[in-house]
Amino acid sequence: MRKIYRFLVSKLRARKLRRRNRSLMGDIGLTLILAFFGLFSLFPLIFTVVNAFKPLSEIFIIPPRMSVQNPTLNNFFDLATIVESFSVPLSRYIFNTGMITGLGTLGTVLLGSMAAFPLAKYTFPGSKLMSNIIVYALMFNASVTAIPNYLIMSKLGMIDTYWAVILPAVGSTLGLYLMKNFMVQIPDEMLEAAKIDGAGEFKTYWRVVMPLCKPAWITLIILSFQQMWGTTGGVFIYTEELKPVTYVLQQMVSGGISRTGVSSAISLIMLIVPVAVFVLSQSNVIETMATSGVKG
Amino acid sequence: MKKNKEPLALIWKRHKYKYLLIAPFASIFLVFTLVPVVVSIVLSFTSFNMVEAPHFNGLTNYINLLVRDDVFLIAVKNTMLFALITGPISYIMCFLFAWMINELPPIPRSIITLVFYAPSISGNAYMIWKLIFSSDTYGWANAWLLKLGFIQSRILWFETAKYVMPILIIVQLWLSLGVSFLAFIAGLQNVDKSWYEAAAVEGIKNRWQELWYITLPSMKPQLMFGAVMQITSSLSVSQISIDLAGFPSISYSGHTILTHLHDYGNVRYELGYACTIAVILFFIMLLCNIIVQKLLRKLG
Known about the structure:
The structure holds 2 protein chains of 2 kinds. Chain A is mainly alpha-helical. Chain A has helices at residues 2-18, 24-52, 56-59, 74-84, 90-121, 127-137, 142-155, 163-170, 174-183, 188-196, 201-212, 214-230, 245-253, 260-292.
């Protein structure tokens, strides 16, 4: 008991040293609020995970239970059996997804931040107009523009290639707008200093601006990855060999009631990948903050 | 407007690298975003069913939509009600939770961030709300309310017009810790830590004062970004309405501008009319955006 008490006291002291202007009551209050809403929010994750390990008999219990009595891996074995029967090997679908999400995310982050830098930090003829168009473009509904987009794609001969899903995603202004709003905060003196050191716009962008807004582009990676991971190709990609893995998984989900177990396993897999990307990139942010200690 | 009298050659020479940095994005944006938007606006003045070539019919679509289409008026009313409630609440929620999470030490911080971001990451997990508000006694809400004696007989949640909107609002709020939330988290990490130390010396006493005098003013760009995101997302609700309340929903109680667009674009294939709806929605968003930007400028 004594040890625990001493441990707690030392923790509290450490806490006091660490932060100014923080009351213990406030900390406890915030933690309670976060815990309450966190549980509320966590609901779908728990449900998805639990469902994937339920045997068929438990999936159909009404009302559905949040716990599993006899956990089983059968859903995953069934999934593997179905996957083996495909005419196109699974690795091919995964490769397609890799290409689409990889190129799409890279393009969004790189091109978006490149264009964001001059718009955020300089004024030049056309800069104001371009900044306005970026915001307005966010407000036009994408389901309407899909049809003109299809026509353009077919004129350019890009239908049924990876580009048909990658390029419209890269051309969306969300990423640029996000990056621009972070780059505005970079102090002008830093850019001046870089200029005095003889760095041109390109070098300043790559060596000064990008390292400074790491939290911003990590966030953009998470958002962009999640969006690209969710695409099924739709009408833009119709050759089976070029379809992303999301498409196959959703095909299996729509296989009817006999596939219910399998589809909960699929839901879990669909969830794990974005969560993994999220956790990896978040830990990356924390690491850089811990080592550098300050906001660069 | 300032008149620009510099010759083009000089402008190019002075700003060459800025334009070159923008060029790759601009070319993709032009072809795959701007041109499709312009084409859609042109189509809004035509009658187009995808089979025959579009033919120009002037303002007919606009007049029909604004004067003759009673269902559209219901959709506008629902959308505005929905946006006025979910927009501000979700915006404040995104910021408050991001700020509370930022108070935590690093490792718990990333775990809790994931927990709060979970609904947005988990695809169509919101379908679980269909189970909760299922109309039979097996639905969780009905089962509990019956058990606790609040109601005598089960409620037909999605079949009763007055319950549809409130449920959709709850679900939307639950889903709303998304893009802006992440941007706020990143923005909070970007605030210069030395300012807080300086402020403590200057006599800032607690976290509320820190929030008001330092954090909020230094996060203006992110707050701006979040506002635009919340406006567009709260005005463009459709998928959750279609999935939960069905399409069409009972006496159009869950009908929104975007489900109306979906009706004409994907069901009836009257694309000219669908484009007209998109243009009107665009102007509504623009108007809301101008109002909110004006309000935000007053802050700090």
